[in-house]
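Researcher: We're teaching a course module on how sequence relates to structure. For the next exercise, students receive a sequence and then see the predicted structure as C-alpha cells, so they can try to spot secondary structure elements on their own. Here is the exercise chain.
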Amino acid sequence: MRVMVIVGSRDHEGYTARAVKSIMSIFSDDDSTIIYLPKSKILNCIQCGKDGWGECRSKGTCLLEDDFNMILNKMQDIGLFIFATPVYFSDLSESMKAFLDRLRRVSFHNRNEDIEGRIALGICVAGGGGGGSFKCGAKLEEVLNICGFNVYDIISVRRQNFEMKNKILIETGSFIKKNEKTIIKQ
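Model: And here is the predicted structure for the students to work with:
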C-alpha cells in the first residue's frame, strides 16, 4: 500500500513529527511519501475569475505556479493519506490551511479520482497548553470530507497525553496495514 503523509509543521523533531514517525513505523519507506508543507511553496488561493472561481471549478486544476500541482500529481495511486498538523489557536497550521483550501477547490466540483473515496487519516497535535485539538480535528475532518476523502479517523493528540496517543497511532497504523484490502480502495 502506498502512503502519503502531508505534514503542516516545519519542525522535524517536534510533537507532530514524532506522531508521524510513530504511525509511519508500520509502513515501508519505499511505499511512503512525506511532504512537509512549510518547506513547499504553497500560495494562498487568489479566487481567480469574476465569480471567485477559476480553473479549479471548470477543470479541477489550479493556475497558480507553485508546488501545489506537483503535490497533487503525486497523489495518484495512493492508498492511504495522512494529514498531520500542529494545532494553532484551535485550528490547522497556516501551511495546512493554504494547501487544503486549494485542494478542496480543485476537488469539490470535479471529483478527483486520485482522492475520491480514498482513505484519509488526520492527526492534530496540540503543544503548549494542549487545548484545541478537538476543534482542529473537526475542521480537518470537514475539509477532507468536502474533498471527497473517506475519513477513517481523526486522532487528537495533546502534549500532555502524547505517550498514550503515540501507542494509539502505532496501533492504528498496524490495523490499517493488516486490514488494507477491506478498508482501502486500490
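Model: If you want an answer key for the exercise: The first helix runs from residue 15 to 24. The beta strands are 3-7, 32-36, 80-86, 119-126, 150-158.
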